[in-house]
Write a structure and sequence with these properties.
TIM Barrel; two-stranded antiparallel sheet; alpha/beta; about 270 residues
Length: about 270
């Protein structure tokens, strides 16, 4: 009997040889958002691992949207050119299709790398002002972010759209929006971090409004048959003890042009995901 794990599956128009997906894993090895030789080695190995889809790590849609100085970005021509080189290498030597996770770290940005402690950057470490739906710090030792204005929201939305265009030009074949782990889109969804009194806060429908605006804007610039998904943590920060830890990845974006949902559950490697 053939195992479902090793049987083909189709996500929109993207055909996958099996149902093994390598989750995005932060590497903290970029230079001002630009992929390095490490990414060629890391992703090249995974592209030749037998998995059908490899998702590139959480990639900042603007410089201030990165978690750390070492995080990958897709907000400049240099970032795009470096990603294109990585994709070309993976295609030459590997078999996996390539997706990417686009993100904005929000109030959890401007942090040290994990092996440096993971705490907020000090003033002398090229720290930057973080933004969030409301001026509420992520934790006791974290700086208070600036509440996003309408101009901020427009800029960030445009950044996601621009990053999606760059990803497509670089050869990426699927896009996931990062709405988990307390980063920007997740912080809009959570009533703990979103205390806005305008049309983007309050009810669940209002809290979902901005992430959905970004999703629809990104969907509009993607080829019709290219998969667009989202990953969302199903509990807020601080996490409720009884809540599940994570919603199924690659949940469909609820727009009229969304691909049909698949019942496949990607297999994650034992590593820190984005």
């Amino acid at each position: 009997m053939t195992s479902a794990l090793f049987s083909p599956i189709k996500l929109a128009d993207l055909e996958l040889a099996n149902r093994i997906v390598v989750s995005p894993m932060c590497q903290y090895s970029a230079d001002d958002g630009v992929a390095s030789g490490w990414h060629i080695t890391h992703l090249g190995m995974l592209a030749n691992s037998g998995a059908a889809l490899v998702v590139v790590e959480a990639t900042g849609t603007e410089r201030r949207g990165r978690i750390t100085h070492g995080c990958l970005g897709l907000y400049s021509d240099d970032c795009e050119a470096a990603l294109a080189r990585v994709v070309a290498h993976c295609r030459r030597y590997g078999t996996a299709k390539l997706g990417i996770q686009l993100t904005h770290a929000g109030r959890k940005a401007s942090a040290r790398r994990p092996w440096e402690g993971g705490q907020p950057l000090a003033p002398g470490e090229d720290a930057w002002q973080t933004i969030a739906p409301s001026a509420i710090a992520f934790g006791p030792d974290w700086p208070v972010p600036r509440e996003m204005t309408a101009a901020d929201m427009e800029r960030v939305r445009d950044g996601f759209v621009d990053a999606a265009k760059r990803a497509i030009r670089a050869g990426i074949e699927a896009i996931e929006l990062h709405a988990a782990h307390g980063y920007l889109l997740h912080s809009f969804l959570s009533p703990i971090s979103n205390k806005r009194s305008d049309g983007y806060g309050g009810s669940l429908t209002a809290r979902m409004r901005y992430p959905l605006e970004i999703a629809r804007a990104v969907r509009a610039v993607m080829p019709r048959g290219m998969p667009l998904g989202a990953g969302s943590t199903s509990s807020a920060f601080p996490r409720a003890a009884s809540a599940p830890t994570r919603a199924p990845p690659w949940s469909p974006i609820p727009t009229s042009s969304s691909p049909k949902r698949s019942n496949a559950r990607p297999a994650s490697p034992r590593a820190r995901s984005g």
